[in-house]
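Ticket closed. Logging final result for Phosphoesterase.
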Amino acid sequence: MRPTLHQLRARLVRWSGTDVLGLLLVLLLLGGGFLTLLEEVREQETQSFDEQVLRALRRADEPAEPLGPRWLAEAARDVTALGSLTVLTLVVVAVCGFLVFVRRWRTIALVLGSTLGGTGVNALLKNLVARPRPSVVPHLTSVLSESFPSGHAMLSAIVYLTLGAILSELVEKRWLKLYLLTVALGLTLLIGLTRVYLGVHYPTDVVGGWIAGLAWALVAALVARVARSRSPGLREEARGDTAPP
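Final structure:
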């Protein structure tokens, strides 16, 4: 027997409510983890561990030389550039251009709100903590701001995970959704790891950036879900009803 329209609506409300509660629980865990890490960093409880990791990635007789083949450092610089503000801005602009073509105006607002808001939060956290950059090993790429949390790690998590979630809504097959989210997560992890390898961030800077970025991306997802439940326009965009013929 087919479910009635009323039953389908009731299921949708129940599933949405469960999802929202799950997101809120994850956000609480991420927030608690970030605050705990922040306190440890400010009290320099992690400093010894951080410095040991950075030294372990360099030759003992020549700290300016990273472990591994010569091409690895250049590859790390290429990958780390994917998390730079310039590249992330280009990615966001390109995706927003695509959304303009398919007339997803409200989705554009969600993307811009998430990315611009995350950039502001990252700058605020850096200024509040004001942790100096690592000095135990030479930097293998240039840096301009404070160390905690890593802007590359945080902003790449925000941008790539948010965009991965949005793009996954454009496909129906579950394995395609999983692929998009896996690529987004893989890019975020690689970018963060290169920051440590290049000696411009402590491991805890990167972990802090990952936690904050994931939390912000989940906040954006929560806002989008609530907005979609209240906005017929957003529901139409999610179904692709606004796309041109």
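The chain has one domain: 37-58+65-239. No further action required.
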